[in-house]
């Protein structure tokens, strides 16, 4: 018997990565062009408390779908089953940034408008600078979290591919911790860039206006204040130690969505709404036709036609029509005022 739970050898993620490089790209040390496609399966024990597995932190949790728990009877009631409704409690492990609504296309369940604040990358010959970009403000969007099921990950950048492949060695709590660390690094880097620009413009003096981030304060408290020689000149000019540079922004080329998408009903409504409006008259006509069929109107009409066909009136009508046609053909159809053809 193979082990179960966290010791199970079952696969929970499958990835395909395809990278290419050009001659000129290699000469100029350009990043290769990479495309990654991954399928991730999140098992129930990863987000819910399951017997034989670690307990998740339920201080922050959400009520998921309602399950039906079947309890088998014991003793004299053995063989009888009792069903009761149980509300499943799911631990909240937020999806990475590429899976949040503000970074997902609307057709796949994303927010209605673009994100209000993002980190865009500007690449220069020496370094990559992260600059905050402000766009149209958006209403508050609910943060999405991991749930049992399948997820699709795609990326067309080497940075998104690298970060995702590195995350395959972490469980959900460690992935969340990594996300928080990356967000902290981005904030420190943007803060440092703004601080350095103010020093270059002469708005503040480097040493007089220096201050430390929380991580630098922790390093000082722990006695880890060693400075590399190449950083000495920068600290003298800016009064600050240069923080680690985060990865360039790759959210615009990376996507993480559940399979099937959470907005499958929204997607179908977007497609079916205009079609239903176009076919609404046809639907009404079919409804009236069905009512007439059920009411026997067509049967009554057919009966009347059959009864009328048994009389001589159809023959008289045909004879009169033929005579009028001959008169019109001979030019004796009158002056044209009564429907005849004038010769």
Order of helices and strands: EHEEEEEEHHHHEHHH
Structural class: alpha+beta
Average of pLDDT: 74
The Rg value, from CA coordinates, equals: 37 Å
What strand order characterises the main sheet?
Answer: 1-2-7-8
The residue fraction in helices comes out at 25-40%
Biggest sheet overview: 4 strands, antiparallel
Weakly predicted, low-confidence segments:
66-73, 114-138, 207-211
Beta-strand segment tally: 8
Q: Termini, distance in Å?
A: 102 Å
Question: How many alpha or pi helices?
Answer: 8
Strand content: 15-25%
Q: What is the molecular shape?
A: elongated
Key terms:
elongated, 8 helices, alpha+beta, 343 residues, four-stranded antiparallel β-sheet
What topology emerges from the helices and strands here?
Elements: E1 13-20, H1 23-27, E2 33-42, E3 61-72, E4 81-91, E5 117-123, E6 128-134, E7 149-155, H2 158-167, H3 172-200, H4 214-221, H5 229-238, E8 254-259, H6 264-295, H7 297-309, H8 313-330
Antiparallel strand pairs: 1-2, 2-7, 3-4, 5-6, 7-8
Biased composition (Low complexity): 116-142
Region (Disordered): 96-142, 212-243
Written description of the protein model:
It contains eight helices and eight strands, in the order βαββββββααααβααα. Helices cover 36% and strands 20% of the residues. The strands form three sheets. It has a four-stranded antiparallel sheet with strand order 1-2-7-8.
């Amino acid at each position: 018997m193979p082990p179960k739970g966290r010791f199970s050898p079952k696969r929970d993620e499958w990835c395909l990565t395809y990278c290419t490089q050009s001659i000129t790209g290699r000469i100029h040390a350009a990043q290769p062009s990479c495309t990654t496609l991954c399928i991730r399966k999140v098992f129930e024990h990863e987000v819910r408390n399951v017997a034989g597995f670690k307990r998740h932190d339920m201080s922050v949790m959400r009520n998921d779908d309602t399950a039906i728990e079947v309890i088998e009877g014991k003793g004299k009631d053995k063989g009888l089953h009792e069903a009761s409704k149980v509300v499943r409690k799911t631990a909240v492990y937020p999806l990475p940034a590429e899976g949040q609504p503000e970074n997902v296309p609307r057709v796949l369940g994303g927010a209605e408008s673009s994100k209000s604040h993002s980190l865009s990358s500007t690449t220069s010959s020496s370094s990559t600078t992260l600059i905050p970009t402000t766009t149209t403000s958006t209403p508050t969007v609910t943060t999405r979290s991991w749930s049992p099921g399948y997820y699709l990950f795609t990326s067309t950048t080497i940075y998104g591919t690298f970060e995702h492949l590195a995350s395959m060695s972490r469980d959900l709590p460690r992935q969340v911790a990594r996300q928080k660390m990356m967000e902290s690094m981005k904030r420190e880097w943007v803060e440092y860039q703004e601080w350095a620009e103010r020093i270059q413009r002469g708005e503040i003096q480097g040493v007089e206006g220096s201050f430390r981030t929380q991580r630098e304060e922790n390093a000082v408290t722990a006695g880890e204040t060693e400075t590399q020689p190449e950083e000495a000149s920068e600290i003298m000019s800016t009064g600050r130690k240069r923080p680690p540079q985060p990865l360039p922004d790759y959210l615009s080329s990376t996507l993480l969505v559940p399979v099937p998408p959470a907005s499958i009903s929204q997607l179908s409504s977007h497609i079916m709404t205009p079609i239903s409006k176009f076919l609404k008259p046809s639907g009404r006509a079919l409804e009236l036709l069905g009512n007439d069929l059920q009411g026997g109107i067509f049967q009554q009409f057919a009966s009347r036609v059959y009864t009328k066909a048994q009389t001589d009136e159809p023959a008289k009508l045909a004879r009169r029509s033929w005579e009028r046609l001959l008169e019109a053909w001979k030019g004796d159809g009158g002056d044209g005022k009564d429907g005849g053809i004038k010769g």
